[in-house]
Amino acid sequence: MKLLLVFPLLSLFFFCSASCEVIKALPGQPANVGFKQYSGYILVQPQHGRALFYYFVEADSANPLANPLTLWLNGGPGCSSLGFGAFMEHGPFQPREDGHLVKNQYSWNLESNMLYLESPIGVGFSYSNTSSDYLGLNDATTAKDNMQFLLNWFEEFPQYRNSDLYLSGESYAGHYIPQLADLILDYNKRFSGRPIKLKAIALGNPLLDPDISVINAEFLWSHGVISDETLLLSKTVCNASRHLKESIHQNLSKECIHVLNKLEEEMGSYTDPGDLILPICFSPTLLGQTFFQGTHNRLHWKQLAMSSAVANDPCRVDEIRQYLNTPKVQESLHANTTHLSSVWEFCGGHLSYQRDSIGINIIPLLSKLLKRSIPVLLFNGDQDSKIPLTQTRIIANMLAKELKLVPFGSYAPWLVGGLSHLAK
Amino acid sequence: MKLLLVFPLLSLFFFCSASCEVIKALPGQPANVGFKQYSGYILVQPQHGRALFYYFVEADSANPLANPLTLWLNGGPGCSSLGFGAFMEHGPFQPREDGHLVKNQYSWNLESNMLYLESPIGVGFSYSNTSSDYLGLNDATTAKDNMQFLLNWFEEFPQYRNSDLYLSGESYAGHYIPQLADLILDYNKRFSGRPIKLKAIALGNPLLDPDISVINAEFLWSHGVISDETLLLSKTVCNASRHLKESIHQNLSKECIHVLNKLEEEMGSYTDPGDLILPICFSPTLLGQTFFQGTHNRLHWKQLAMSSAVANDPCRVDEIRQYLNTPKVQESLHANTTHLSSVWEFCGGHLSYQRDSIGINIIPLLSKLLKRSIPVLLFNGDQDSKIPLTQTRIIANMLAKELKLVPFGSYAPWLVGGLSHLAK
User: Fold this and answer.
1) Which residues contact B199 (CB under 8 A, 6 or more apart)?
2) What's the pLDDT tens digit per position in A90-100?
3) Cβ separation of B419 and A218 shorter than 8 Å?
4) DSSP B73
5) Which residue of B lies nearest to A423 if distances are taken between CA atoms?
């Protein structure tokens, strides 16, 4: 009798592996959605009950498998790829106040199958049943979990195992993505089986080198945000790089606190450091999260977490938070099945990320990846004062010089639909 | 019989002096306009038939005379205060495609009586019947005509003769306004009668010093518009200041043309140098005017003319041009009564302004005005690469240092309706 029972269950499980993660329809989604969506958990450490949440959107195409696969990670450390990447930036739908989803005409799934991953645990719907897992989080554990996620995800979606794979992300994903790429190349080298077809990585407004990426006083000055005096203070007393490193080591000097306070005073409460020209949403929840915090809580690495992602409609944050905390939405997403102790948030509140990871210089790893023939795209928004475009450009130039790369096109505006987006 | 005829005519003329310039209603204007509008010509040189066109909007207030009087001039040299200042920027109405006027909730006439002046002749509806008048135009003739305009205008509107007077303008009005202010102070000194109550001047994105105001390579670089290489070329080979001065003296060097070409290539045809983040209007007329010109026609001082005024809706230019060329609109404005040979344009095509005026350094005059107790407000849009905010700030600092001015407030965002406009 036992055997008779076991076989049907096993075959049911196998049958379910990818298909039972299919999203029938997201609440409020528009009619005539022509592509499939999947979401759910991938166990990366079964003994600990450590599980990462993903949202997978197939390419909007007659034959999705003819398109590449892109894994997307948002920065932080500790911010949600589901909230920022998928529902605010480049996923297929964006929630509106009434709970309806509207189509995003710039969705990346018009060109690629999009895999949004909540990583590490503590981010969004990702979690562990072992509370000590939350304590030791750092770049190494994150990269390892992301690698395990990818391998296990391919088990559930074997049809994508041979797809061209792109890794992309923004801000602190400048750490996550190159480190994951490195593990993938190691995996391909170690195992003689089919390689994972990693084609390229793309990093937006990335934190790459704490000595370069965050230097922002000249940028703020040239954008009218700070005074000559504060520019001078930043050049002579404490720049954003020193401030970041002091924050990492939890030994903030009086000088740095003084300069930061001056700078924040001049920027004011209604200027988003991640998007200088963005109007501010007066929603009390958003203001509560980003602005009404004491100076000592506003460590730079926390600011990094609230990345430059809040595009166009600054109040969309509220709509997304509300949407993703709706029980019916969570049900349709196969999310929060273990009933997490806190609500879904854009940036994980109880995440304890080891700060020394933040100080790692990623440039040598980019160099290594380039030498191993992985193309690296660096892109940068022009209104972000946390990782200014000038700094990403300096790093691109350093790499080009070191590796003797030569331009294959001339510096020019990047036009989308005939409009200049000032990406050069 | 003659005498009998003459008296009624004279009295009619006297009666008309201000009232026959009343605008009954502008075609398409909204209902319930609670303030008066006037427009027409003021002869500044009757023998030559030299006449300047004005549009005067009383303050939107129960008692307009309780508000100050502001004279507004747009830059160029050669661009229209009616088209830019009044109908695009801060007048009470803005034309829409269907020829209707919509209310501008930010109209300056909510705070002041606004006098928009088309100056010098050749701008908009202003003209001279003596064609040689167009040849000798320069800062001195413009200031003199503007002064004569003001005195004659007060004859027609004697009720404003005692009003607090503010002078304001943008771009090349950085020349016009201080020079007019200087003549007003001289007039007050020379004539023992009632002084003209000049209270202050305000200059937006002003051309003040050709060595400072136009330097823009660092600004363009920090905004992602140009490459490192072109920044270097601008620093070492030819900067915008040298280019401007070479243009003035019509001896453009090969080096400067080379750097300008590089810069324009990288900026592309769809980026407005006067507003880097403005989407481009694809209207053929606008594109024809600003973009499809050969390099040699694109002298910097002509670029200055197309000032940063095209705010928000880049296609509004077309609507305004169409509106102001409508015969019924011209009739209601008492404009084009002499049937000018060309249509109304934003920037005067046949204006021949003496180029050496453009090279004048206005800073000493600002210093003189400040010493004579005329407050000077310098303000600057944050997206203008022709007169970048960084340059206006440098000039403000120079003046503050020279005159030992001290700040009476701290550097801070300027909030309008709760939104930061990044004006500091």
Assistant:
1) B68, B164, B165, B166, B374, B375
2) 999 999 988 99
3) no
4) E
5) B224
ipTM of this complex? 0.83
CA dihedral of residues B156, B158, B160, B164 (deg, nearest 10): 120
DSSP state of B306: S
Euclidean distance between CA atoms A319 and A261, whole angstroms: 31
> Nearest 10 degrees: CA dihedral of B17, B19, B22, B24?
-140
Note whether A411 contacts B226, CB cutoff 8 Å. Answer: yes
Report helix, strand and coil shares of chain A as percent, to nearest 5.
40, 15, 45
Coil, strand, or helix at residue B193? coil
Put simply, the answer to whether B413 touches A271 (Cβ < 8 Å) is yes
User: Is the Cβ pair A270, B419 closer than 8 Å?
Assistant: yes
Average of per-residue pLDDT values in chain B? 87
Rounded-to-integer distance, Cα A82 and Cα A93, Å: 11
Question: Do residue B277 and residue A280 have CB atoms under 8 angstroms apart?
Answer: no
**Mean pLDDT, residues B248-274:** 92
Residue of B222, B280, B411 lying closest to A227 (CB–CB):
B411
Percent of chain B clearing pLDDT 70 (strictly above): 84
Are the Cβ atoms of A271 and B397 closer than 8 angstroms? no
Contacts with B, A 201-240, CB within 8 Å: 218-219, 221-230
Taking one residue from A and the other from B, the number of pairs with CB-CB distance under 8 angstroms is 106
Give the largest Cα separation in chain A, rounded. Answer: 83
What number is the average pLDDT over the span B68-80?
94
Which residue of A lies nearest to B409 if distances are taken between CA atoms?
A: A266
What are the structure tokens assigned to A218, written together? 């000249």
Which two three-digit tokens encode residue B189? 């000194």
Q: Does A8 touch chain B (CB under 8 A)?
A: no
User: Chain B interface, mutation test: which of A259, A382, A424, most B Cβ atoms within 10 Å?
Assistant: A424
- The per-residue DSSP string of A55-79 comes to EEE--SSSSGGGS-EEEEE--TTTB
B50-57 and B419-420 beta bridge pairing: unpaired
pLDDT at B418 over 90: no
Rounded-to-integer distance, Cα B223 and Cα B382, Å: 11
CA distance B224 to B231: 11
List chain B residues with CB under 8 Å of A411.
226-227, 229-230, 266
> What is d(CA B247, CA B217) in angstroms, rounded to the nearest whole number?
18
pLDDT at B408: 87
Cα–Cα distance list, B158 to B12, B155, B191, B249 (Å): 17, 5, 17, 44
- Beta strand pairing status for A37-45 and A113-117? unpaired
Which of A224, A418, A424 is nearest residue B424 as measured by Cβ atoms? A224
pLDDT digits (tens, 9 = 90+) for B351-380: 789 989 999 999 999 999 999 999 999 999
Identify the segments of chain A with pLDDT beneath 50.
1-15, 284, 286-312, 418-424
> Is the separation of the CB atoms in B203 and B169 below 8 Å?
yes
Residue B259's nearest CA partner among B317, B310, B215, B302 is B215
Domains of chain A with CATH codes: 2-211+314-420 (3.40.50.1820), 225-305 (no CATH)
Q: Is the pLDDT of residue B262 over 90?
A: yes
Q: How far apart are CA A38 and CA A150, in angstroms?
A: 15
Q: What is the pLDDT of residues A229-258, one digit of tens each?
A: 999 999 999 999 999 999 999 999 999 999
Distance of CA B248 to the CA centre of its chain: 20
The secondary structure of residue A161, as a DSSP letter, is T
Token pair, residue B104, equals: 């501008």
B320 touches A at CB < 8 Å:
no
**pLDDT value of position B413:** 83
Query: H or E segment at B55?
Result: strand B50-57
In whole angstroms, give the CA distance from residue B323 to residue B99.
Answer: 6
**Alpha-carbon gap: B270 to the closest alpha carbon of chain A (Å):** 6
